[in-house]
């Protein structure tokens, strides 16, 4: 079984809150769990073997943010019968494309 999730945690406090520092706390909280993760500009992708581990990691990330109000978004793709890593999902799409699934910058 493989669980892949997309996690976004954002403090919704006063404008003077250090947004980046709070996001760093959320990401750091993931280290306490048996998950693999990769942070992107808009979300963090989490991968685990157990659904409960994803929920626990997401809760810890939310609670790590020092804000009176926090917005958390968690989107889950739960494979019950197949083990498929995040990289394999991308590779399958790239096989159909015949190229990388991202913009290729021209070199100067």
TrEMBL record:
Pfam families reported for this sequence: Thiamine_BP (PF01910)
Please list the coiled coil stretches.
Answer: none
Name the chain's protein. Answer: Uncharacterized conserved protein YqgV, UPF0045/DUF77 family
- Family classification: Belongs to the UPF0045 family.
Q: Which InterPro entries match?
A: MTH1187/YkoF-like, Thiamine_BP, UPF0045_domain
Q: Which domain of life is it from?
A: Archaea
* Signal peptide location: none
> Which residue ranges does the record assign to the Thiamine-binding protein domain?
6-94
Name the Gene3D superfamilies for this protein: 3.30.70.930
């Amino acid at each position: 079984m493989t669980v892949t999730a997309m996690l976004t945690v954002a403090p919704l406090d006063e404008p003077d809150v250090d947004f980046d520092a709070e996001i760093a706390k959320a990401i750091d909280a993931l280290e306490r769990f048996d998950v693999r993760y990769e942070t992107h500009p808009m979300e963090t992708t989490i991968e685990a073997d157990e659904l409960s581990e994803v929920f626990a990691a997401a809760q810890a990330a939310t609670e790590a943010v020092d804000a009176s109000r926090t917005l958390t978004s968690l989107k889950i793709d739960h494979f019950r019968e197949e083990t498929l890593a995040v990289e394999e999902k991308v590779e399958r799409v790239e096989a159909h494309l015949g190229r990388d699934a991202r913009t290729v910058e021209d070199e100067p």
